[in-house]
Automatic annotation (TrEMBL):
<dbReference type="InterPro" id="IPR032687">
    <property type="entry name" value="AraC-type_N"/>
</dbReference>
<dbReference type="Pfam" id="PF12625">
    <property type="entry name" value="Arabinose_bd"/>
</dbReference>
<dbReference type="GO" id="GO:0005829">
    <property type="term" value="C:cytosol"/>
</dbReference>
<dbReference type="InterPro" id="IPR009057">
    <property type="entry name" value="Homeodomain-like_sf"/>
</dbReference>
<protein>
    <submittedName>
        <fullName>AraC family transcriptional regulator</fullName>
    </submittedName>
</protein>
<dbReference type="GO" id="GO:0003700">
    <property type="term" value="F:DNA-binding transcription factor activity"/>
</dbReference>
<keyword id="KW-0805">Transcription regulation</keyword>
<keyword id="KW-0804">Transcription</keyword>
<dbReference type="InterPro" id="IPR018060">
    <property type="entry name" value="HTH_AraC"/>
</dbReference>
<dbReference type="GO" id="GO:0000976">
    <property type="term" value="F:transcription cis-regulatory region binding"/>
</dbReference>
<feature type="domain" description="HTH araC/xylS-type">
    <location>
        <begin position="237"/>
        <end position="334"/>
    </location>
</feature>
<keyword id="KW-0238">DNA-binding</keyword>
<dbReference type="Pfam" id="PF12833">
    <property type="entry name" value="HTH_18"/>
</dbReference>
<dbReference type="InterPro" id="IPR020449">
    <property type="entry name" value="Tscrpt_reg_AraC-type_HTH"/>
</dbReference>
Amino acid sequence: MNDISIPIPLLNAALAPAKDQGYQVDQWLIQASIPPVILQQPNARISAAQYSHMQSLAIRAMNDELMGFSQSPQRVGTSQALCHWLVTTKNLAQALARINQFYDLLGQGFRVSYSTSASHASLKFAPVVSDEIIAPFAYEHFMFAHHRVLTWLTSHDVPVQAVHLNYSRPTHGSDYRFMFPPAEIQFDRVQSFCELLFDRSLLSLPIKQGQEDLLLFLRRPLFNILMNAYSEQSWTARTRTALQSLLYTRPNLEAVAEHLDIHPKRLRRRLKNEGIEYQDLKDQLRRDIAINALTQSGESIEGIAELTGFAETSTFTRSFKRWTGVTPYTYRRKVGG
């Protein structure tokens, strides 16, 4: 999934503490090729490259990898130090235990607790200061980043069985199924922590990355975390990947099912079990490819329509306006620059 996009509500959530602390966030947005006016367009989306660039600028300016979300900042270099420690572990179980130990020693921001049961492994995330209230974005960002690091370390899919969250569903809640595939997402849990649950059988996965691999990863860590391609085993991810390779043929469900060697009814049922319909998945892929092309390339609108599997530019234009609230021409002028 090389063409993903980020919803504007998530961007607004990421920038909220910096704004409250008086930082001139418009400067970061402009440097990341994101026009500040887009913050007022809730249906718009930006590319992963734009978002990760903005994050990097904010983190460096604030000297806080938590971007102001905790009363105890996590200084720049913290995650890098953790990764250097993790690449020396032997397997996933040892890496999870070391994450627990690292944050116990750090004593800032989040406390991360690792435990196992007969069938599951668990990572619990809670503020170091027990009565501190941390915004949902900080939890999702922190949990998502750590899960992606685990998949990178093992060069393997590390499926999350369940995500337990102690806050209400955000406006971009539908994106959670792509953040933590193929997990059951539970909001509004009455508990003091958020939690990722894994099947215990994964604990024996070997760590395959070394120091040289880490140096490459750390050149663009935030972008690499967003674009990590190892979590591809959910039916949602597999169908999206198949769709991307077939999009120019304008495939229906039956064609994609044949490509995946599964009966169409079974594929539809498996997607529904993961909380998404085939047409919604197809629309999201088309939207993300279009947004990436509009903001990162000089491809014509007609060319983007063809790239996203539309026979007519007018049909693409209507669909894009339904997805984002504006036409592709307007989107490119306001967002792509």
